[in-house]
């Protein structure tokens, strides 16, 4: 099958990989999560990814993950799709999280490749099919070999696209040729998982993005897609370029995106709270640099 331009994206176009707010004592801040989610949706996000890596999924409990989905569902209602991160290195545990996310009100599941164990491609495909068979929710596969140690190879993607509930990919593979191969041969909806690739992937047929930078600049990130859809490709390029300094400061300056997003949200007086160990908060110099990049983006 080939991708059709008229097919609506399964989870929207402009998705934010939302941080998980904590109280100053480190507990889950559901009120803060609801306020942040409402702001993100009001500012242009039509989907939220909860309990992803940016949401500190490695250090939140299963109960916290379910509570977060339920609270955000209550806050945003049907104004945005909710995609719950459920991926772990354990197939059985991932199935359990998928079922709990479905009960809590998620619209879809984000499933990362099992990390550290480096399963071969046939085992990887089996893992994803087990998750897809376990619940009634559509799946987005998360391909980020730099973190997991395992690539979801294009041929594996093409085979997995035959499953009726495997509908999308969050891509951090940095493989433009492989992405275009899958786009040309399947109906999988690709979402740029790296903010610097938003326009590039959208221009070759991606559905949109899952953005960490959107935590702090949701309208600015969405404006890239809006300009492109309006036929203003030069304007879309200018908007992508304008966002580049903030993207670099948040995503390529030596600190994890979770740390920089929470630091900048906190500096702006928005819900965030501390990060959980082993992550450590950004220092004053880093926060000042983030604020400068943010102010340059939003001043014009």
UniProtKB/TrEMBL annotation:
Q: Which residues bind pyruvate?
A: 54, 210
Task: Kindly give the SUPFAM superfamilies that the UniProt entry links to this protein.
Answer: Aldolase
State where the protein is found: Cytoplasm
Q: Where is this site: Part of a proton relay during catalysis?
A: 53, 116
Q: Where is the active site?
A: 142 (proton donor/acceptor), 170 (schiff-base intermediate with substrate)
Which reaction does this enzyme catalyse, per its entry? L-aspartate 4-semialdehyde + pyruvate = (2S,4S)-4-hydroxy-2,3,4,5-tetrahydrodipicolinate + H2O + H(+)
Hey, which pathway is this one from? Answer: Amino-acid biosynthesis; L-lysine biosynthesis via DAP pathway; (S)-tetrahydrodipicolinate from L-aspartate: step 3/4
* CDD domains referenced in this protein's UniProt entry, alphabetically: DHDPS
**Which keywords appear in this protein's UniProt record, sorted alphabetically?**
Amino-acid biosynthesis, Cytoplasm, Diaminopimelate biosynthesis, Lyase, Lysine biosynthesis, Schiff base
Which InterPro entries does its entry note? Aldolase_TIM (IPR013785), DapA (IPR005263), DapA-like (IPR002220), Schiff_base-form_aldolases_AS (IPR020625), Schiff_base-form_aldolases_CS (IPR020624)
Xref: NCBIfam families: dapA
Indicate the family of this protein: Belongs to the DapA family.
Function of the molecule: Catalyzes the condensation of (S)-aspartate-beta-semialdehyde [(S)-ASA] and pyruvate to 4-hydroxy-tetrahydrodipicolinate (HTPA).
Q: How does it assemble?
A: Homotetramer; dimer of dimers.
Q: What is this protein called?
A: 4-hydroxy-tetrahydrodipicolinate synthase
Encoding gene (name): dapA_1
